[in-house]
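Model it.
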Amino acid sequence: MRKTKKVIITCAPTGSIHTPSMSPHLPLTGDEIATAAIEAAEAGASILHLHARNEADGSPSPRAEDFMRFLPRIKQGTDAVINISTGGSATMSLDDRLEGAKAAQPEVCSLNMGPLIFDFSAAANRVESWQHGWERDYVETSRGRIMYNDNVYIERIMLEVGREFGTKFEFECYDIGHLYTLAHFADRGLIDPPFMIQGIFGILGGVGADVRNMAHMVSMADSLFGDDYIFSAFAAGRHQMDFCTQSVLLGGHARVGLEDSLFIGRGELAQSNAQQVRKLRGIVEALGREVATPAEARAMLGLKGGDQVAF
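Modeled.
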């Protein structure tokens, strides 16, 4: 792993898992997502991992027009690196999931390195009443859905987004096997280092939220990629800050945001994404490391620059 004194904080403001009924602080409209992202960047996030939502009901949206409600505003309001999800939602086709990325041609896109069960149905147990008709079924039926990315899909994303637009990737690895899939595509020359590996823990269907799993993931990534990668991590839900801290202790980077956890402490909803970024920044600095600026993150990842995007 490439280790530096600087820590890249990524913030994921909204995602596609949590629904409007779960928190009044979850940004849903273009205006809300733009405001949340800019505030997170001001708090210390150098990368913003973005999904889009439908304006009418807050449901996940793959449409380029919904991304464009906030992308230009974020670019105007901050120099942070913008990262567009190609994961979208398990209910979307691959062409749907690529619509926003192809329209925006961003510096970074996320890329799930394999299929997995992505079961967040237990989140329904905390909701007393639902604001919109789509929410309950969307959450409860997640136990029967696969977040699908096979090797054909992965190759298409690498070629149609990476090669076509010079976009780099946040490689989302939900299990050790995903590292080997990443190594396969690196060996084929479809992607170039440095690789940003995002270890994801605590999703039912992926690797569990046990810090020993993180240590093992880093150990295996070291054996596969040597110094050709940087490591970042997050855990879903209540393990969020624990895993961010552990990643920093290992010499890596970290991600927070309401996509990953709606809370700032036990039983306490986060008031904003910026609140989570500030908490993580305090941890980073208390551990004797420094938060990377967007320019420093671009240099570490070899990005094309914010002037080379399509928004």
